[in-house]
User: Which sequence fits this backbone?
């Protein structure tokens, strides 16, 4: 949704509160995409901070479908966004002429989809586990080890160890 900030940026003292729907159903991080399982609208407060300046305060929660880093099982991951962004008329005008405005601004229009996208991106977890002690999957047969042992021999012989063993045996026999 595009919100025009012109009025707020020319007001002296004003506060507006809005409920803004987030339209995306899938979140694209640039590397991966996650389905959005649940989302609340964005509760946005726009508050003037003196003439030509506004503070955007946003709160929203959503649940993304992510995958456990160890066993790849789907994990619903809940994110609570709570952010503040400062926007000023001066900055918009300067950046417009330089052509590098904040990506959620199009001139005096606030692109709420992009604003929310940025905030989700900044709050994505580094690591997701289905449970703290997830055992992961067997590297040989692919079985989910949380469901039990697969019986694979996970001993990988190290050729250097075998050599030492031979020397040890050789010495013993002398
Ligand atoms: Zn797991
Ligand atoms: Zn296995």
Assistant:
């Amino acid at each position: 949704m595009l919100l025009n900030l012109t009025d707020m940026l020319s007001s002296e003292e004003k506060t507006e509160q809005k409920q803004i729907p987030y339209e995306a159903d899938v979140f694209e991080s640039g590397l991966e995409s996650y389905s959005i399982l649940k989302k609340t609208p964005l509760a946005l407060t726009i508050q003037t901070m003196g003439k030509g300046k506004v503070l955007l305060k946003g709160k929203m929660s959503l649940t993304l479908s992510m995958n456990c880093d160890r066993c790849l099982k789907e994990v619903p991951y809940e994110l609570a966004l709570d952010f503040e962004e400062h926007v000023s008329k001066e900055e918009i005008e300067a950046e417009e002429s330089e052509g590098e405005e904040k990506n959620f601004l199009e001139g005096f229009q606030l692109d709420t989809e992009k604003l929310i996208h940025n905030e989700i991106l900044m709050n994505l977890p580094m690591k997701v586990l289905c449970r703290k002690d997830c055992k992961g999957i067997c590297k040989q047969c692919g079985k989910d080890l949380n469901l039990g042992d697969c019986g694979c021999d996970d001993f990988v012989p190290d050729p250097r160890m075998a050599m030492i063993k031979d020397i040890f045996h050789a010495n013993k026999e002398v």
Remarks:
- The helical segments are 6-9, 89-98, 112-123, 159-173.
